[in-house]
Amino acid sequence: MADDRIVEPRLLRGFRDYLPGQMNARLKMIDTIRRVYESYGFLPLDTPALEYHATLMGYGEDNAKQIFDFENPEEEHVALRFDLTAPLARVVAQYPDLPMPFRRYQVGPVWRADKPDAGRYREFTQFDLDSVGTSSSAADTEILCGMYDTLRALGISSFRVRFSDRNVLNSLLDFAEIPHASSHAVFRILDKLEKIGIEGITAELSNGRVDVSGDKIRGLGLAASQIDRIKQFLAVPRGSRSEVLSSLSNLFKDVSSATVALQGLGSICSSLDALGIPDEFVALDQSIARGLDYYTGPVFEAMLTDAPEFGSVFGGGRYDGLVARFLGRNIPAVGAAIGVDRLLAAMVKLGLAGTNPSTAQVLVTVMEPGRIVEYEKLTRELRQAGISAEMYLGEERGLTKQLAYANRLQFPLAVLIGSDEFQRGEVTIRNLKRGAELPDKKTQREEWLRLSRTVQFAVPRGDCVSQIRRIISEL
User: Fold this and answer.
1) Overall domain count for the chain
2) Which is nearest to 317 in space by CA: 445, 474, 128, 450?
3) What pLDDT is stored for residue 465 in this prediction?
4) pLDDT tens sequence across 136-193
């Protein structure tokens, strides 16, 4: 007996659907990123959405709190991956015959049990590139160059990739005479600099503050002299990479622990200079304090300067200790990940990503159902010529409704073949894209008449494919 109950269609909190227009923009973006990564020689990898719970543990307290975990049918403790890096560490440990360095890219959904919020979802997509098995600073530089080239390839002209080093922040603790046991708490506060400013940072380092919601945030209770040294560090003037490096060297001239970190940063800066990567796009910024449970050396972060409200859209760093959980020894690794959904949302807002819902360039309308095979033949000819085409398969037979369908899906072209066209051995091509751009007929009649002749015209049936190819080349 059929179940007559109606199920309400609804989404889980923190999840979303991607309709065709959004998916087209997303797939185009992913394809562009993939081409950049492959131009660097990175290899594709995919891993399961589910891992054993133990595989995903040990990557920081925050990550542990955000894991979706449950028992599978075999009563094993499993979990959804929260990023693509932890599974990569498992792969490297599990397959000892992988070529080293193992340079891979991977795109896929990840899940985090965050509190859903505007722009914050429990399921989202990341696109990573990583080099495992090399400690060379050239590998760090390559990731930075990959970030720069990827954002440029996506047509983004206003962005800033910033980098620093975890060990520079460790040297800050020595400079400010703060015990390293307090590093997590201090760096977590410094990571808020872009959001709460230097006054908020100062308050949280000392006696605390009240946030905009009225909640009391406890302070660390650092001494005024310690806070003053942190503020000196944060006040290092922004400039060229060499200028920032020189300022840090002067500030830490009496801090022995800073030597190695500054040498590493100096090597990256020299390489970026030699490769012609502009300072305005890839900058040394000592204030970066991202993911410090995770990273062991250089750290990277990219933001769109015309859409700062989206935060970091691309970030990563060196994580030499991740594989050690499986092998008992460190294997050097460095990488970065794009937040695909966040970056796409920013690009759409900036007008850099279209959301055209159609995947076809031409709609072949059907006005004579008795001659359906003729429409099918023309549609196939277009496809075989490399022109994506859709034959209208709906119930509507009126031309107006079929063209409304084409306009709704933003087809650039439509082919019209009615009884008159069949009799004359012609087809009519309508340039829907240009038609949408026609000036107002009432106020610009002469211009409208001139342009309207290019919007719709008849051609011999045998010339249809070549004429459409010509029009598409001019769009």
Assistant:
1) 2
2) 128
3) 95
4) 999 999 999 999 999 999 999 999 999 999 889 899 999 999 998 888 889 888 888 8
Q: Are residues 177 and 259 in the same domain?
A: yes
Q: What is the CA radius of gyration of the chain?
A: 28
CA distance 244 to 266: 10
Range of the domain at 283: 20-181+236-349
Instruction: Determine the pLDDT at residue 211.
Output: 81
Residue 448, pLDDT score:
47
In a domain, 211, yes or no: no
Which residue ranges of the chain lie beneath pLDDT 50?
A: 442, 448
Positive/negative CA dihedral, 138, 144, 145, 147: positive
What is the dihedral angle through the alpha carbons of 232, 238, 241, 246, rounded to the nearest 10 degrees? -40
> Residue 44 pairs with which residues in a beta bridge?
105
Domain assignment present for residue 80? The answer is: yes
Angle between helices 241-251 and 258-274 (to 10 degrees): 170
Q: What is the pTM of this model?
A: 0.89
The CATH number of whichever domain residue 396 belongs to comes to 3.40.50.800
pLDDT at 213: 75
337 and 441 housed in the same domain: no
Contacts of 250 (CB under 8 A, 6+ apart): none
**What pairing do the DSSP bridges indicate for beta strands 389-391 and 362-364?**
parallel
78: three-class secondary structure by DSSP: strand
